[in-house]
Design brief:
The complex is a heterotrimer of chains A (997), B (196) and C (92). With 997 residues, chain A is an alpha+beta fold. Chain A is 22% helix and 28% strand. Chain A has seven domains: 163 residues, Roll (Ubiquitin-like (UB roll)), CATH 3.10.20.440; 213 residues, 3-Layer(bba) Sandwich (FAD/NAD(P)-binding domain), CATH 3.50.50; 127 residues, 3-Layer(bba) Sandwich (FAD/NAD(P)-binding domain), CATH 3.50.50.60; 74 residues, Orthogonal Bundle (Arc Repressor Mutant, subunit A), CATH 1.10.10; 145 residues, Probable tRNA modification gtpase trme, domain 1 (Gyrase A, domain 2, 2-Layer Sandwich), CATH 3.30.1360.120; 89 residues, Aminomethyltransferase beta-barrel domains (Alpha-Beta Plaits, 2-Layer Sandwich); 97 residues, Elongation Factor Tu (Ef-tu), domain 3 (Beta Barrel), CATH 2.40.30. The radius of gyration of chain B is 17 Å and the shape is globular. Classes of the chains: A alpha+beta (997), B alpha+beta (196), C mainly beta (92).
Chain lengths: 997, 196, 92
């Protein structure tokens, strides 16, 4: 029998025993337990060590607000740190470790930090380490030295270095009404909305709906409240138009009534079923939202308020009533309102012992007094707890007479033996989501709480969220909210009957008892009341500054139990009222969300892969693939024992010697059609296309509006009003978008249609002196001779039964053709071409060889059209038409863009046999260590088999004027420095005889 | 005639996958469409174009945004943008027929028969699976039969037509088809799926 | 955040690309007034409050939209197709 388990009661399944381990020790609990309730039932009150001082801590709450009992779950080979023990459903095989302790939870060396507690108050790290260097033990360098040790000593759980094998997924949902919170108000709202036939989603962060009804012990509609809630839930579950999401925390409220929620789908099972997600991220777009999020209890801050055994009064009640666990054998109640009196009565009913009720108020009402009597004590009104005793566990409280009006203590402090303190500082509505939605909370002095303001988005509040507490209010406001969310007026129909309570939940305005010793405001971040006052003395009076300086409310619990007490202390220090001190705006997430859940299926490369029709052929041939945007392209087809460098040099040489073939399916292709197609091209290209004859192609250059070069490619005139534009692989999307903008916004009068046909066509370029011979062997239906297919000509024919379109154009400087066919025929045509090339030992080549061929030829690509170069920089002035305006013509002649000293395109040759480096700077001074000012940089390089040298293209100040001069490449990253010669970028066959031949 | 290769690769094989112990709740298949074209109207000619496509393909296509139509021969068409329709069918000559029918004063026709791959997904949990990939409301009210949507899954453009109570056809760029099929299959694992 | 595309209906922000200020006018294409071009290309008012912008429904129908948006709170006051000449498929 567990030492703290009650004999009966609670919603746990006592017939089902569950085994779990905590720090390697075996324990048992029951189905329906949380880890926290099971540990408490086993008499374990020490659950963690605090963030900064390593003080022993126990569980403080029973829900999502838990600041102390954070643990690490070991599951499916992964450590998941910082999970509140209150949020973990017990399941067989659960393995959990405590955190932030060394060597063990009970004997923690870090607890020595407590001795220096005065020294490491608010701002300690900044003051100690971030100041100016004043001797050896100060300043940023010193910080960097100490950081490792400090980071290990201070903190929470340790994350894993292993990849997370868990599966997460995203889900989109649309509904008329999203009800957030499945308590009494939420259930009523969901039912009311669902009865009108609307689509309703009800999200509840706990494993079960019912909320307060599960542990209130009240009667609703003649039955126990938990039975009522279960029946209500079962009714809703049967409705087709209701989706019930339990274990689902709505954590973000964004624009356009879009909400984010996290469903812990399988965390309560020992193992996630294969193919299923562990957690599911929901994006819910709701026409209306009902916020029925309830309220959280907050503590009163007093000295020594963090010992294991001290917890919120409502949590104690919940442990007794929901889980059948008495957190202590002798409990002292400490409160500023009536709600904790019910806790006292509940403890007594369950067979526990209440040692005292300490109430800061001078007097209490009859209802509270009756509860005290039931609990077997007389309330000590006008008293406060001023200190606690104990070590790893609580052993007593110290109480003293207290004047709530002045905050002063008097009389003798006297001890009361206890091992549990249940504290209540009143209730704060959970208004996080309303705040995220854009509204500023409103302080209500009479309720001593921040209440939700008028909605700024389409939401309706219900239940304790509104600051109206009690079951009767939850039933009626819940139904009203449900009706209002679907545009209906309140109903007069009878509500389920429930006895009224006369308990007064309005707290006395006392949230701190000042005394000597550490009184914690933020338990998770170890921020004390004195830290808040220190911050005030040092001038951090704005609540935003206070928060950042002390880190109050910035831990994983986001200050759910500490925000209001912290504000109260700051307001008191400044001598102003709480609303004047202000409150910070709540930001998502309401409760922690695993990064994995946000990434969901976007893992690994984070992007889809794009394959050409010949992809599998390349792979089977052992090509090393390289990403080009989303595309995967062959880098080189290395033979056995060959490096990529050796392979591309061989491939490049083969093209120059005989013939090669390369997959160019990735080039962007846009169908440009319509009576004004040629007109559009004249406006977007720097050169003229309206003069292009049908059946011919032309190389074109586009500028941006600012006059800089944008993209280049050939455009083919297939018919009078039918063009096929090609773009660089990388710019296919941006060019399309640019053209669409032109048509939609700039020139809506042009009748032109654009369609992306990149994927419609597979393309293969055949290049080399034997290229024509290859085509002659396989093309039917058309000639490919110089007369029929001249340079930049286009013909239509067939290859092995598949229709093809062939354009004679060259990127390599060789006699070359681009063969296009339907993508579904791509592999078929490719293989036919390969076969036709056999007599000439036609060599497939990849990106590296493609690059080497174009560098030898001095053709520019994205490395040179880098968004900073002009057409003139690239010696493409000849393409700038003087007869017509075009995009970019307005600004391309700005003085700075035609400056003589601009970096312009040149070739460079390595003089010392060293390879060049893309991005290497060129300098004039031959001093490796002091290279001086850069005159430009290398944009691309290769080994040129034709020249038998490392060559490159570069952008160099003055460009052509430097031809024949020498410079040095300075590439400290690759540890290279060496002499180069600056030459013309037309390294190979400058007159184009091969290509036209 | 040369047969067209599927872009989906060897992994896309018939069988049952995922958690199908209690039955596969969706089926995924590649739909052979010999003809896919985009027909596009000049502004103001939307109804005329819808009419020409309708008469050529024996459909009742309107020019309303997001609308669509299909006939018994499996020819289907849906709206994917202002004045834009995606029309497809099993008969290869369809592409030429539509191109013939649409005169230059009405609009243009662009052949995409090779450029788009069509995946069908159908079954009891089809809306659940698709909701993982797209921020669209797949409920029957919001997305009726024959209606179309142009949307995107991450970087992949997808055009979707509802072809039945529990059947959708997804048009993706051919080069993305393999990666997209992977995403779709992954999304269907928890409900169990078959490839037909 | 959702944008109500006049063609497709309300869609997630992620389907749209921002395409710039919709209040500027492009100079005459043949204009050599550099200042006018510089105003067009570079100078933006950056108002706090109501703003007219071009957005493209890039992950949808591809149409460019003119959106009136409040830069202070992201409220979208109106959305229209940049091209007004589509008749939007009025029932035939």
């Amino acid at each position: 029998m567990s030492p703290r388990r009650t004999a009966k009661g609670g919603l746990i399944d006592r017939a089902r025993t569950i085994r779990f381990t905590f720090d390697g020790e075996n324990y048992v609990g029951h189905a329906g337990d949380s880890l926290a309730s099971a540990l408490l039932a086993n008499g374990v009150s020490l659950m963690g060590r605090s963030f900064k001082y390593h003080r022993p801590r126990g569980v403080f709450s029973a829900g999502v607000e838990e600041p102390n009992a954070l643990v690490t779950i070991l599951r499916e080979g992964v450590r998941e740190p910082n999970i509140p023990a209150t949020q973990i459903e017990l399941h067989d095989g659960l393995r959990v470790e405590s955190q932030n302790r060394f060597p063990s939870l009970a004997w923690d060396l870090g607890a020595l930090n407590q001795l220096g507690g005065r020294l490491i108050g608010a701002g300690f790290y900044y003051k100690t380490f971030m100041g100016p260097v004043m001797g050896p033990l100060k300043g940023t360098r010193f910080w960097m030295m100490c950081e490792r040790a400090i980071r290990r000593a201070a903190g929470l759980g340790r994350a894993d270095y292993e990849p997370d094998p868990s599966r997460y997924e995203r889900m989109n949902a649309f509904c008329d009404v999203l009800v957030v919170g499945g308590g009494i108000a939420g259930l009523m709202a969901a039912e009311a909305a669902a009865n009108t036939g609307k689509q309703v989603v009800l999200a509840e962060q706990e494993p079960y709906t019912g909320g307060f009804a599960r542990w209130s012990g009240e009667i609703i509609g003649g039955e126990p409240a938990d039975t009522w809630a279960a029946a209500m839930t079962a009714r809703l579950a049967k409705l087709d138009n209701v989706r019930l999401l339990t274990r689902t925390a709505v954590w973000g409220y964004y624009d356009s009534n879009t909400l984010a929620a996290l469903e812990r789908v399988n965390d309560h099972l020992a193992r996630t079923p294969k193919g299923h997600a562990r957690q599911r991220h929901w994006t819910i777009r709701a026409d209306q939202v009902v916020l029925a999020t309830g309220a959280l209890e907050r503590p009163i801050v007093f000295c020594g308020n963090d010992r294991p055994g001290i917890m919120l009064a409502g949590a104690v009640r919940r442990y007794v009533a929901e889980f059948g666990v008495l957190p202590g054998s002798k409990t002292v109640i400490f409160t500023n309102n009536d709600s904790a009196y019910e806790t006292a009565a509940v403890i007594r009913r369950a067979g526990g012992h209440v040692a005292a009720i300490v109430d800061v108020r001078p007097q209490i009402g009859d209802e509270a007094a009756a509860r005290a009597t039931e609990a077997g004590v007389v309330a000590l009104t006008g008293h406060a707890i001023v200190g606690t005793r104990g070590g790893k566990a609580l052993s007593g409280a110290v109480v003293q007479a207290f004047d709530a009006a002045t905050g002063s203590l008097s009389g003798e402090a006297r001890p009361i033996d206890c091992d549990s303190i249940a504290v209540s500082g009143g209730w704060q509505p959970l208004i996080h989501l309303a705040s995220q939605a854009g509204a500023k909370p409103v302080w209500r002095a009479e309720k001593q709480a921040f209440l939700p303001p008028e909605p700024t988005q389409r939401w309706v509040g219900a239940g304790a969220f509104l600051g109206t507490f009690g079951t009767r209010q939850a039933l009626s406001s819940g139904r009203d909210a449900g009706l209002k969310s679907v545009g209906k007026r309140s109903s007069r129909a009878k509500l389920p009957e429930t006895p009224a309570t006369e308990l007064d939940l309005t707290p006395a305005p006392v949230l701190e008892i000042r005394g000597k010793g550490k009184a914690f405001v933020d338990l998770q971040h170890d921020v004390t009341a004195d830290d808040v006052r220190l911050a005030h003395r040092e001038g951090f009076v704005s609540v935003e500054h206070l928060k950042r300086y002390t880190t109050l409310g910035m831990a994983t619990d986001q200050g759910k139990t500490s925000n209001v007490p912290g504000l109260a202390i700051m307001a008191d220090a400044r001598g102003i009222a709480i609303p004047e001190a202000g409150t910070t705006r709540f930001r998502p997430p309401f409760s922690p969300v695993a990064i994995g859940a946000l990434a969901a299926e976007r893992y690994g490369e984070l992007k889809p892969e794009r394959f050409t029709p010949m992809h599998d052929w390349h792979s089977e041939r052992g090509a090393e693939m390289t990403p080009a945007g989303l595309w995967h392209r062959p880098l080189a087809y290395a033979n056995a024992g060959e490096t990529v460098d050796q392979a591309y040099i061989r491939e490049t040489a083969a093209v120059r010697r005989s013939v090669g073939i390369v997959d160019v399916s990735t080039l962007g292709k846009i169908a440009v059609k319509g009576p004004d197609a040629a007109g559009l091209l004249d406006r977007v290209y720097t050169n003229t296309f309206s003069t292009l004859k049908v059946g011919k192609a032309r190389y074109g250059l586009m500028l941006r509006e600012d006059g800089l070069a944008f993209d280049d490619g050939t455009t083919w005139r297939l018919g009078e009003t039918d063009f096929l534009m090609t773009t660089t692989t990388a710019n296919a999307g941006p060019v399309m978008q640019h053209l669409e903008y032109c048509l939609d916004v700039l020139w809506p009068d042009l009748r032109v249609h654009l369609t992306s046909v990149t994927d419609q066509w597979a393309g293969a370029a055949i290049a080399g002196p034997k290229a024509r011979a290859v085509l002659e062997r396989c093309v039917s239906g058309t000639g490919v001779d110089n007369g029929t297919l001249p340079f930049m000509g286009i013909v239509h024919g067939e290859i092995d039964g598949a229709p093809v379109m062939i354009c004679r154009l060259s990127f390599s400087g060789e006699l070359a053709y681009e063969v296009y066919c339907g993508a579904g025929h791509g592999l078929h045509v490719w293989e036919a071409l390969i076969e036709a090339g056999e007599p000439f030992a036609m060599t497939p080549y990849g990106m590296e060889a493609l690059g080497a061929l174009r560098i030898e030829k001095g053709h520019v690509t994205g490395a040179e059209i880098d968004g900073r170069t002009t057409a003139r920089d690239l010696y493409l002035d000849w393409m700038l038409s003087k007869k017509k305006p075009f995009i970019g013509s307005g600004l391309m002649d700005r003085p700075a863009l035609i400056d003589k000293n601009r970096a312009r395109l040149v070739g460079v040759v390595s003089l010392d046999g060293q390879r060049l480096g893309g991005g290497a700077h060129l300098v004039e001074r031959g001093n490796r260590d002091e290279p001086g000012e850069s005159i430009g940089h290398v944009t691309a390089y290769c080994y040129s088999p034709a020249l038998e040298k490392y060559i490159g293209l570069a952008l160099v100040k003055g460009g052509k004027t430097r031809h024949g001069t020498r410079a040095f490449q300075s590439d400290p990253l690759r540890k290279r420095f060496g002499q180069v010669e600056i030459v013309s970028h037309h390294f190979f066959d400058p007159n184009g005889e091969r290509m036209h031949g | 005639m040369v047969e067209r290769a599927s872009p989906l690769g060897n992994d896309f094989r018939p069988g049952s996958y995922g958690d199908f112990a209690n039955g596969a709740d969706v089926a995924i298949s590649e739909v052979p469409k010999a003809a896919i074209v985009e027909a596009r109207a000049w502004p103001g000619k939307e109804n005329a174009l819808a009419g020409l496509v309708s008469s050529t393909c024996k459909l009742k296509l309107s020019a309303l945004p997001n609308s669509g139509a299909a006939n018994r021969e499996g020819v289907c068409a849906f709206n994917i943008g202002p004045g834009r329709f995606l029309v497809s069918g099993a008969r290869e000559a369809l592409a030429g027929d539509i191109a013939q029918a649409v005169d230059e004063e009405t609009g243009t026709v662009t052949d995409l028969s090779h450029g788009r791959t069509v995946l069908a997904i159908e079954g009891a949990k089809v809306e659940w699976v698709l909701a993982k990939l797209f921020a669209l409301d797949f409920s029957n009210n919001a997305f009726p039969i024959h209606a179309g949507r142009a949307t995107a899954h991450h970087d992949v453009f997808v055009q979707i037509q509802r072809r039945g109570e529990k059947r959708f056809e997804l048009y993706v760029f051919r080069s993305f088809a393999r990666a997209f099929a992977k995403s779709l299959r992954r999304a269907a694992q928890d409900v169990g799926y078959t490839i037909k | 955040m959702l944008i109500d595309c006049p063609h497709c209906g309300a869609r997630d922000l992620s389907e749209f690309s921002y395409q710039g200020d919709a209040t500027r006018t492009r100079p005459d294409p043949a204009s050599t007034d550099t200042k006018a071009w510089i105003d067009y290309v570079y100078n933006r008012p950056n108002p706090a409050g109501k703003h007219r912008e071009y957005w493209q429904h890039a992950g949808g129908c591809r149409a460019h939209l003119v959106i009136e948006r409040d830069t202070l709170n992201h409220e979208i006051r109106s959305v229209a197709l940049a091209r007004r000449d589509y008749n939007g498929g009025d029932a035939a």
